[in-house]
Amino acid sequence: MATDKRRRELARAKAERQAQRRSQRAQRARRNKIIGIAAAATVIAGVIVWGVVGSNSDSVPAAEEAVPSQSESATASPAANTPGPVATPAGVTCEQPGEARTDIPTFDKPTDQGLTGTVNWVLNTNCGRITMALDADKAPKTVNGLAFLTAEGYYTGNFCHRLTTAGIYVLQCGAPGQDGTGDVGFTLPDENLPAEGDGNYPAGTVAMANRGPGTASSQFFLVYKDSTLPAGYSIVGDITKGLDVVKYVAAAGVAAGSSDATDGPPAQPLVIKTAEIQK
After folding, report:
1. How high is the pLDDT of residue 181?
2. Separation of alpha carbons 245 and 125, rounded Å
3. What is the gyration radius of the CA atoms in the chain, in angstroms?
4. Residues 29 and 67 in one domain
5. Domain span holding position 141
């Protein structure tokens, strides 16, 4: 009897140990499952966070895109400037712009226009005349390129396609296509670059848009309020008359329906009806 009782006690103890081990294994399994789910959630969360942060790439300035570019965009520089209203100048009136030109001429290279010193570049627009003093000594190749395109009639019927009203304050013109796209067939070197710093592109500045270093061609931008940009855009001159025209266009803001209310086609269209170089 004692032997049978002892065997039953041992069997019961063994069964209890086995049950305890099964319970421990089950607990470990549940714990591992919970840890696995938590780890997976952490990874997913990390991917989501990276996706949001990573997709929001540097916008200050973003490539062609965040500063005036040849494709063509001007992008806000670091928040050195704060948005501000532009007063509508008195005495400026605009005519209907008419149809945009549909041809996109291309050229192998600009021929020498024989320019030195300061020359006047006059744009007769549907909102009035804009006169600029171009410095052919400080930016000889760029001024020569603009003069060549002007002599070829390239700018006739050309719409200013882009306005920015926050961060930087520019009106951009000169693209082959009305939407800012196209290529005239040649590029110009960087010339007369300003120093880095606040307000390095002051109101009245005429500078060249580009896709990057050494890629300017036909597109230019007119600064209507002091702006800070990376110092990579060739300065060709200054507006001497007609800054009020640019400010008038700027005061109307960006066209309704633009994806960015501060960067897009101007609500008040501006078209260059004729252009001329006055030596």
Report:
1. 82
2. 9
3. 33
4. no
5. 58-279
Tokens coding 122 = 């006059």
Compute φ and ψ for 248, nearest 5 degrees. Answer: -65, -45
If one counts the domains in the chain, the total is: 2
Closest CA to 255 of 188, 192, 179: 179
Do 243 and 271 lie in one domain? The reply is: yes
Q: What is the pLDDT of residues 224-273, one digit of tens each?
A: 999 999 999 999 999 999 999 999 999 999 999 889 999 999 999 999 99
d(CA 144, CA 148) in angstroms, rounded, equals: 6
0.70 cut: is pTM over it? yes
Does 185 or 177 have the greater pLDDT score?
185
Amino acid, single-letter form, for residue 227? S
Domain-terminating residue out of 39, 56, 73 = 56
Tell whether 273 and 144 lie within a shared domain: yes
| Four-residue CA torsion sign, 264, 82, 272, 61 | negative
| Residue 187 shares a structural domain with residue 275 | yes
